[in-house]
Amino acid sequence: MTRIIADISVSLDGFVTGPDPGPASGLGTGGEALHTWAFSDDPEDRRVLREGTARSGAVVLGRHLFDVVDGPKGWDDTIGYGAGEVGKPAFIVVTSSPPKSVRLTDLDWMFVTTGLPDAVTAARERAEAASSDSGKDLDVVLMGGGATVGSAIGAGLVEVLSLHLAPVVLGAGTPLFTGGAPRTLVQRSVISTPTATHLTYDVFR
Predict the structure, then answer these.
(1) Under a CB-based contact definition with an 8 Å cutoff, are residues 29 and 61 in contact?
(2) From the centroid of its chain, how far is CA 161?
(3) Which residues pair with 15 in a beta bridge?
(4) pTM for the predicted model, two decimal places
(5) Most buried of 109, 136, 139, 161 (most Cβ within 10 A)?
(6) How far is Cα 126 from Cα 120, in angstroms, rounded to an integer?
(7) What's the distance, CA 73 to chain centroid?
(8) What is the pLDDT of residue 168?
(9) Contact 185, 201 (CB under 8 A)
(10) For the stretch 133-167, what's the b/e string if a residue is b when 16 or more beta carbons lie within 10 angstroms of its beta carbon?
(11) Sign of CA dihedral 166, 172, 174, 178
């Protein structure tokens, strides 16, 4: 069964980037510390990354994050979604205006201009097709940015929330939560490593 999973790294004070993020500055000032765990040699960090990316049948991201990962300082063969851990799932970008060109042409990009719910629906269709092809259940993963994940949770689109809590206080940046309807979370797992606390919750309306 395909689930909708929001999976994102966050600081102790609730930011998913540092100040001034963008294509030229990546995750902003200090934002790289949020993803130290993804490059760690700790076996638990490696397992979390491997299992998280292996379940990905399709990945949803917002336009701002797309501009970062497809920008000149973005992903390459060694740094990217599950680099070295997973194949290449479909990437669904929520945007009001598709880009004129894409640098990472070896990835399967789809640009949805009709809103986040339609993007999630398209991603579910791609993930279910990938599940059928692979013979195993694959999920839709919302990887960010913060506005996309926060909006999806607020709209009741997310079934599972996977947070990677980094031991850093950024002071400013892009917040994960900015209000919205209350949501009830049920904690399912906690994995602590020197570089992060990995938290998994079921999300209920």
Answers:
(1) no
(2) 10
(3) 175
(4) 0.91
(5) 139
(6) 10
(7) 18
(8) 96
(9) yes
(10) eeeeebbbbbbbbbbbbbbbbbeebbbbbbbbbbe
(11) positive
Which residues fall within 8 angstroms of residue 136, CB to CB, at 6 or more apart? none
Placement of tokens 């930011």 in the chain: 15
Separation in Å, CA 131 to CA 1, 135, 137, 162: 9, 6, 5, 21
* List of long-range contacts for 32-36, beta carbons under 8 Å, 24+ apart: 33/166, 33/168, 33/170, 34/9, 34/10, 34/164, 34/166, 34/168, 35/9, 35/166, 36/166, 36/195, 36/196
Listed residue (74, 76, 201) closest to 149, CA to CA: 201
Please state, in angstroms and rounded to a whole number, the distance separating the CA atoms of residues 205 and 186: 11
Q: How far apart are CA 183 and CA 59, in angstroms?
A: 23
| Element at 201 (helix H, strand E) | strand 197-204
- Pick from 123, 121, 10, 105: which is nearest to 60 by CA? 123
DSSP state at residue 183? -
Domains of the chain and CATH, by start: 4-204 (3.40.430.10)
The encoded tokens of residue 91 equal 């990437």
